[in-house]
Amino acid sequence: MPAALEDGIGTTNACKHYDDARHVPWDIKKYYHQRYSLFSRYDDGILMTDTAWFGVTPEPVANKVAQHLSEGAPASKAILIDCFAGVGGNTIAFARSGRWKRVYAIEKDENAMLCGKHNARLYGVDGLISWFHGDCFEVMKNELEPLSQHSVVFASPPWGGPGYSTDPVFNLESMDPYSLDELLDSFQQFTQEVVLFLPRTSDLRQLASANHSLGRVKAIHYCMQGASKGICAYFGLFASP
């Protein structure tokens, strides 16, 4: 049976490494078969909560997003804040890019955060990341406000579960628990440079009308094997990738 791995960081029984498909819950089996796309170092002992399988960004996509943020962000921005860090898929890619003086990872689910810390250590970037357990909006307001002028905010918010994929055009105001407007209103009080990772079927008209004050929003599909895995919407002074 899967069990939490012991390490110096500390984990819980909710932090699991499956090495036998027979022990994987039925609803995540298809994601388990894609495990090396999610983390190329899965066999080194990657930990995930059962919920995290549905939302972790595949490693090739995370690496390409990290590249585009590194190349497109204003030179004055040296801090990357990952607001829904989960088990560390994007966070690790940002730290590995070498672009950021510091990566700050915020996660509300303590078990997911513990997995993320463990996974960052496996990739050798744990020393480049500061982790915060809590609500990202509160952490940014109460802990990270002095860094705002030097920061880029990245967020891969909850989309409301796998059911989003059944909508031919996804209404970004129906995202649960945070709508597009709620996310932008909060993040752009902190910095104008905001990147949101959103469903591949997101309504582009809503994105286009969401940010009049800073001109056009850049929206990029990120694909694997010819299939889109999601859209990144770049708000603020980002150079075109």
Describe the model.
The N terminus is likely disordered. The protein is built from 8 helices and 7 strands, in the order αααβαβαβαβαβαββ. The N and C termini lie far apart (44 Å). The protein has 241 residues and is α/β, with parallel strands linked by helices. Helix 3 packs across helix 4.
Q: Topology of this protein?
A:
Elements: H1 29-32, H2 35-38, H3 59-72, E1 79-82, H4 89-96, E2 102-107, H5 110-122, E3 129-133, H6 136-142, E4 151-155, H7 180-187, E5 194-198, H8 204-208, E6 218-224, E7 227-235
Parallel strand pairs: 1-2, 1-4, 2-3, 4-5
Antiparallel strand pairs: 5-7, 6-7
Helix pairs in contact: 3-4
Query: How would you characterize the largest beta sheet?
Result: 7 strands, mixed
* Helix and strand pattern: HHHEHEHEHEHEHEE
Approximately what portion of the residues adopt beta-strand conformation?
A: 15-25%
Treating each run of at least 4 consecutive H or I residues as one helix, how many helices?
Answer: 8
Q: Between the first and last Cα atoms, what is the distance in angstroms?
A: 44 Å
Over all CA atoms, what is the radius of gyration? 17 Å
Low-confidence stretches: 1-8
What coarse outline follows from CA principal-axis ratios?
A: globular
Secondary-structure content class = alpha/beta
Number of strands: 7
